[in-house]
Amino acid sequence: MQFIYNIFTQLAVLVLKFVALFNAKIKLFVLGRKHVFSEIDSKLITTKPVVWVHVASLGEFEQGRPLIEEIKKKYSNHQILLTFFSPSGYEVRKNYELADAICYLPMDTLGNAKKFIAKTCPSVAIFVKYEFWPNYLLELKKHEIPTLLVSGIFRENQIFFKSYGAWMRKSLEAFTHFFVQDEVSNMLLKNSGFDNVTIAGDTRFDRVQKQLEANEKLIFIEEFAKNSHVLVAGSTWPEDEEKLVEYINNKANQNEKFIIAPHNINKEGIEHLKKSIHKKVLLFTEHETQKKEDFQVFVIDTVGILSKIYAYADVAYIGGGYTKSGVHNTLEAATFGLPILIGPNYRKFKEVKDLIALKGCISVNNKEDLASWLTLFYEDELSRVEKAKITKQYVTQNLGATEKIMKTIDKVLTL
Predict the structure, then answer these.
(1) Which of 52, 71, 325, 385 has the most CB atoms less than 10 A away?
(2) What is the per-residue pLDDT for 52?
(3) DSSP string, 136-193
């Protein structure tokens, strides 16, 4: 099976090069990997030890970030090599200041894996959540490099736990330790013969708590939001925006204000959203010349400030729940103690399922559901405050994953 996997991987490289001719995102995916090895040569100092952190995309980067910060603080002589699989993560964080080298992970061919490990010689490799590349894992194991999975999530339907998945299950033997988020993942691994497992939780809780403690003020949001009920809608897709716009146009009163931060901020999409709203709309890219309090809707057509904006919300709506990929990050809103509304596709995400069960997060199936809940929250402050307490307490109770994982990293890096 490993042989067949390697053939398919080589074919995938060729197919992606062809698709890149017609698809902008795949073009970034392919071109971004073209000069990885020369970038590593130019940015890493061969005489300094390397900590390799690999993430799939932006969400996983946020899970790895608390560990990177701690490692950099405690081991200043170590270099951080940060690799991404997806362009959507790399393009946003390619200038992250705490990493010494940031690049795409070359495709998981046997040749790439051998060359990558030989060039970087990491003291420890840290994979975040669910990145499993057999050739890289095989090479790490061959060189006896300590390898950790952090904030891991396993599900019964994954190939590791199928009768035909023995070859992939064997690749998991490369991991020195698994730090998983829940008991289900723990039991799946232990039932497959892995005893090197700790339920540590999700490092994102520590990350969002740091954002809360930073308490960075956004004066322009204060000016916009003052003396109003504020809904912050984060990472919205057109399917989310359609329902929000219906409410804004037909049900919202003058005391309600809306901050919408679309997932994609392409010019055409922003312009379409603005035109569909019948209330006064302010764009972030125009705000410096405007009197903010005169507007009812603020569209954030930039990246990097959404997590700070939640501090000014009374209610949060998190987008993605009407798409195939599912709802986006709810923890950034939860850490500020907000009732959260989402679409119906959330079952891949442990924290969302937890918040739904606790009734701090509500799944809305349509525009009528959305309107009903917003009306309730604004008319019944007790209900809103009760759900806000639930989300805040949930975050507080799940802090500490970073500290647990760092104990193992400390042992590895001080050997």
Answers:
(1) 52
(2) 98
(3) HHHHHHHTT--EEEEEE---TTSGGGSTT-HHHHHHGGG-SEEEESSHHHHHHHHHTT
Record the tokens describing residue 361, joined without a space.
């997060």
Q: Six-digit token pair at 62?
A: 């946020």
Q: Identify whether residues 271 and 176 lie together within a single domain.
A: no
- 110 lies in the same domain as 228: no
Output 26 or 237, whichever has higher pLDDT.
237
DSSP string covering 195-210: --EEE---THHHHHHH
Domain that holds residue 284: 217-394
- Domain of 245, CATH number, reads 3.40.50.2000
> Which one, of 326, 360, 341, 313, lies nearest residue 247 by Cα?
341
**Residues 6 or more apart whose Cβ sits within 8 Å of residue 179:** 148, 149, 150, 151, 152, 198, 200, 401, 404, 405, 408
**Tokens standing for 402?**
């970073």
User: Whole-structure pTM over 0.70, yes or no?
Assistant: yes
Question: Nearest CA to 239 among 369, 348, 340, 367?
Answer: 367
127 and 224 belong to one structural domain: no
For the chain, the domain total comes to 2
Query: Are 221 and 346 within one domain?
Result: yes
Could you tell me if residue 167 is inside a domain? yes
**Is the residue at 210 inside a domain?**
no
| CB-count exposure of residue 178 (10 Å: 0-12, 13-18, 19+) | buried
Same domain, 179 and 287: no
Sequence-ordered list of residues with C-beta below 8 angstroms from that of 29, at least 6 positions apart, any chain: 16, 20, 86, 87, 104
**Interatomic CA distance for residues 400 and 67, integer angstroms:** 11
Residue 330 to residues 116, 271, 282, 309, 346: CA-CA distances in angstroms?
35, 26, 25, 13, 10
pLDDT digits (tens, 9 = 90+) for 339-392: 999 999 999 899 999 999 999 999 999 999 999 999 999 999 999 999 999 999
Same domain, 281 and 333: yes
Query: Which pLDDT score, from 0 to 100, does residue 2 have?
Result: 76
**Does 155 lie in the same domain as 11?**
yes
